[in-house]
Amino acid sequence: MAEEDKLDPNPNLAPANENGPAAAEKPSLEPLVVELRDKYLRAVAETENIRKRAERDVAEARAYGIAAFAREVLAVADNLTRAIESLDPEARAVADGTFKALLDGVELTRRELHKILEKHGVRRLEPLGEKFDPNFHQAMFEIPNPEVPAGTVAQVMQPGYAIGERVLRPALVAVAKGAARAARGDRAPAEEEPGE
User: Fold this and answer.
1) Would you state the pLDDT for residue 192?
2) Backbone φ, ψ for residue 145 (5° rounding)
3) Longest dimension (CA), the chain
4) What would the DSSP string read from start to end of 113-159?
5) Is 36 contained in some domain?
6) Do 154 and 125 touch, CB atoms closer than 8 A?
7) For residue 132, what is the domain's CATH number?
8) Which of 125, 149, 148 is closest to 137 using CA atoms?
9) Which domain, by its residues, includes 155?
10) Domain total for the chain?
11) Distance (Å, rounded) from C-alpha 84 to C-alpha 106?
């Protein structure tokens, strides 16, 4: 066997040259190559988007999967709080024996429930003194209060709860009307007299 035959794996094929039949097909195949390359790049991009979307869905499922259960458990937390707050503070102070043990048990249960909710990302919203935010608060009524700016949460009737940035239940609040401008001595520009 000739030395050249040992180097060439298929000696029956003629080497491609610039002037042969393959060169004639090259211009007609270029659009097909461009099209296939475009399809390949789009498929790779789509696969990457699907992977990212799946990762995001898994992260959201981990973070918010407990939301429906937590929303239902909030009623239990509210009832425990109501049970504790229904007793007069003086009666709690003088409680002894079995009654005191019962009160302590209810309080410990309430604290443990809140601790477990926090462990799973559920946080309590206590917006007293904060600016009213309709995304996290539900205004029940307005309270005239000249000591705070208008739009400040003046009273919380029921705390709200959120998990991550999602609200499980908005806080039920009363919003301060704030001081009247004339009473504070600063008038709005629209209220100025024409000659001032």
Assistant:
1) 43
2) -150, 100
3) 115
4) HHHHHHHTTEEEE--TTSBP-TTTEEEEEEE--TTS-TTBEEEEEE-
5) no
6) no
7) 2.30.22.10
8) 125
9) 122-179
10) 1
11) 7
